[in-house]
Automatic annotation (TrEMBL):
The keyword Transport does not apply. One of its GO terms (molecular function) is carboxylic ester hydrolase activity. Keywords: Hydrolase. This is AB hydrolase-1 domain-containing protein. Residues 6-128, 184-449 form the AB hydrolase-1 domain. It comes from the Eukaryota. It comes from Brassica campestris (Field mustard). PANTHER family: AB HYDROLASE-1 DOMAIN-CONTAINING PROTEIN (PTHR10992:SF1057), METHYLESTERASE FAMILY MEMBER (PTHR10992).
Length: 460
């Protein structure tokens, strides 16, 4: 494009690069170059809050990207809300690289006062509107240099941030009075996070059910770092924590893709808390082989095109069988890595943009592909070194009804392999979703929810 521009999008407080996923798609479709960045401790940036001691620390990802740009082409900075302060800092350091700053309903510092004055002015305006005198922000840092942090609550965001933004599938909302309320726990797949369920969660909630979408360790906005994950238990800890805190009501576990192994692991520990597992185009372990076996080969629990472990093999069995069957060139721009020790190496994976587009999201809306490109993170592969070789038990995981969902246009787990998963450890029921890619929660959310509601009525 002859008149191509370069945009850098800076998010507001408590948000991340993901908040620009619709805008980024539109600007790129118009032929422009667009970067949406996660500031420190925001989005999928792994910096921890206590590591941020200065505005420069907080703005480092923005400063790094501005520093990497050549000087012959200037950038349009677009800043939302409190992102105006980091944008002003970046422009102050790199004025020769900045064509303009767009302050989008944003704090806009001046050149006479300290940067924090812009935030103070915003808070004063907010306090007048909300009719409160102070905001009780928590603190960290040293006694002689106290620093504040904030986390916006869901009600606050609904009332003051997103009050005119459309809830997903608003037209399907029903009265919340539901005496037959079920509880769903949604488990994401590899490199993804709780965000991948953003279309499904409001539909199930609108039908009157309770829904929890979890971020597994080092996934989504979970702050665990990759090197802290040494076992399958470490990776699944957020899911185990949710189930351990659950009351007497049983849960319908819904697992997508690699989330099947995590769901099976959790079910083996808490079988008395699970009414059914749905494997959505998922790896479904058995009870004969190690957990990683299915990842080599593949399976279901209503494993949404998910790995469904069995009770004969180690947890990694199905997954390792799948990986071994895929030619290296099929992984396109996927990046593999390793960590751990020489005698116990652990493998990592990060799906590349081309791989996501061709294998995961080929039937999904383009803006959802863009959202995924902004939010995927490096994850550990569930190999035998991570998962161990102890198989899941018949009396635990093997005792719970499993439902497998086949996605007919899945380019990751082909129908033939999904059928192998099913034959390896036959589930109670098999459901097909037509015209769904590997991400049915994105490409066919209504159809998937209809399946889940039917399953909940039958098994929960």
């Amino acid at each position: 494009m002859e008149n191509q521009k370069r945009f850098v999008l800076v998010h507001g407080i408590c948000h991340g690069a993901w908040s620009w996923y619709k805008v980024k798609t539109l600007l790129e479709a118009a032929g422009h170059c667009v970067s949406a960045i996660d500031l420190s401790a925001s989005g999928i940036n792994t910096t921890r809050v206590e590591e941020i001691q200065t505005l420069k620390d907080y703005s480092k990802p923005l400063l790094d990207i501005m520093d990497s740009f050549p000087s012959d082409k200037k950038t349009i900075l677009v800043a939302h809300s409190l992102g105006g302060v980091p944008a002003a800092l970046a422009a102050d350091i790199f004025p020769c690289k900045t064509a303009a700053i767009v302050f989008l309903t944003s704090a806009m510092p001046d050149t006479k006062n300290p940067p924090a004055l812009a935030r103070k002015a915003q808070l004063e305006a907010a306090s007048r509107r909300l009719q409160v005198t102070t905001f009780p922000f928590p603190h960290y840092g040293k006694p002689d240099r106290s620093l504040e942090f904030s986390l916006l609550g869901t009600k606050f965001m609904a009332m003051y941030f997103h009050q005119l933004s459309p809830p997903e599938d608003e037209k399907n909302k029903k009265a919340m009075e539901n005496k037959n309320q079920k509880r769903f726990v949604l488990v994401h797949g590899l490199c993804h996070g709780a965000w991948s369920w953003y279309k499904v969660k409001p539909i199930l909630e609108a039908a009157g059910h309770t829904v929890t979408a979890v971020n597994l360790a080092a996934s989504g906005i979970n702050t665990t770092r990759l090197e802290e994950i040494q076992t399958l238990h470490d990776y699944c800890k957020p899911l185990l924590d949710v189930l351990s805190s659950a009351d007497e009501d049983k849960v319908v576990l819904v697992a997508h893709s690699m989330g099947g192994i995590s769901a099976a692991f959790a079910t083996d520990i808490f079988p008395h808390k699970i009414s059914a597992i749905v494997f959505v185009t998922s790896f479904m372990p058995d009870t004969t082989n190690p957990p990683a076996y299915v990842f080599k080969n593949t399976a279901a629990i209503v494993f949404l095109t998910s790995s469904m472990p069995d009770t004969k093999n180690p947890p990694a069995y199905v997954f390792e069988k799948l990986i071994a069957s895929i030619p290296p060139e099929e992984f396109l721009d996927t990046v593999f890595g390793s960590y751990g020790t020489c005698d116990r190496p652990l493998q990592t994976i990060l799906f590349g943009p081309k791989f996501l587009a061709e294998k995961f999201y080929q039937l999904s809306p383009v803006e959802d592909l863009e959202l995924a490109k902004l939010l995927v993170r490096v994850n550990p592969l569930v190999t035998n070194n991570l998962a161990g070789k102890r198989r899941f038990s018949e009396e635990g995981y093997g005792s719970i009804p499993r439902i497998y969902t086949i996605c007919e246009e899945d380019n990751i787990i082909p129908k033939e392999y999904q059928r192998w998963i099913i034959s390896n450890f036959p589930p109670r029921e098999v459901i097909k979703i037509k015209d769904a890619d590997h991400m049915p929660m994105i490409s066919k959310p209504q159809e998937l929810c209809a399946c889940l509601l039917k399953i909940a009525d039958m098994y929960a």
